[in-house]
Write a structure and sequence with these properties.
This protein has one domain: Aldolase class I (TIM Barrel), CATH 3.20.20.70. It contains eleven helices and twelve strands. The protein starts with 14 loop residues before the first helix and ends with a helix. With about 325 residues, the chain is α/β, with parallel strands linked by helices. Bound molecules: ligand PBG. The site of ligand PBG has 10 residues, from helix 6.
Length: about 325
Amino acid sequence: MAFPIQRPRRLRRNDTIRRMVRETLLSPDDFIYPLFVVEGRGVRKPIASMPGVFNLSIELAAEEARQAKSLGVPAVILFGIPQKKDERGSGAYDRDGVVQKAIREIKSAVPELAVIADVCLCEYTDHGHCGVIRGQEVSNDETLPLLARMAVTCAEAGADMVAPSDMMDGRVAAVRKALDEAKLEQVPILSYAAKYASGFYGPFREAAQSAPQFGDRRGYQMDPANAREALKEIALDLEEGADLVMVKPALAYLDVISKAKERWDVPIAAYNVSGEFAMVKAAAAAGWIDYTRVMMEILTSIKRAGADLILTYHALDAAKLL
Ligand code: PBG
């Protein structure tokens, strides 16, 4: 039975009816807000490719975290940029490293806000890769204990969740085991399970000063052409003990989010990454699109695809509108 009996426009006639039949509703509860923390005081250094995003010294990051909380955003994820980088990324697992200090300070300033620690070495190594280098390659197994140490030091500092983003094989198991041995068995793991080798991370690498100094990340991050492999990565991470899993980036991978959501009964996160944010900001600055409208449409699409949590630099802008 079709037209003229069926007239879908009947349910679009005015805003009230459209609200009644709306399938996807965004809420500030959906968002996780990324922060880039640096050493020093009073530092608020703009990231050129990410208007409105800054490298923040710890006390200013705490202020930003307080604002997130007051807008109803439940969590932040922290990326630390150390003063000194070295071959083994030792700043990543130093008890007094920049991210560990930031976790302590933010948790004491805004205790109800969840603080998630991104666990990866790339912001801390002088070569910019996510692990220890052997020859021209990142050594998987030599990297695992360092990631595990980073996760434990962050959880000891008070992180509510740890989020390994390095794409080494076996890192979820290594992190889980180390947390459990440190009596941190209650700390959940949000694994960047399906993380693609993506051109959309460009602006992040400016913000975190983490561009690889040679080669690229294709030897450990996933090939953008593969969706079934993403399901395998997620399955392995869940077997190893991940509590939540992430697909990253979000927009070019909505199909992967949707497949993951159908297949598993665990919370699915999606990372609306720096390049996705930068494109919207740039087009809006040129007057080519309406920033607010496009931002909300994008965030809605990520949720509609199946994401339960959305990591996004738009978190505060969007929360203000909701
Ligand atoms: C790795 C990490 C990256 C991002 C989050 N965690 C960068 C990379 O893999 O190069 C990218 C986030 C973004 O682009 O917004 N620590």
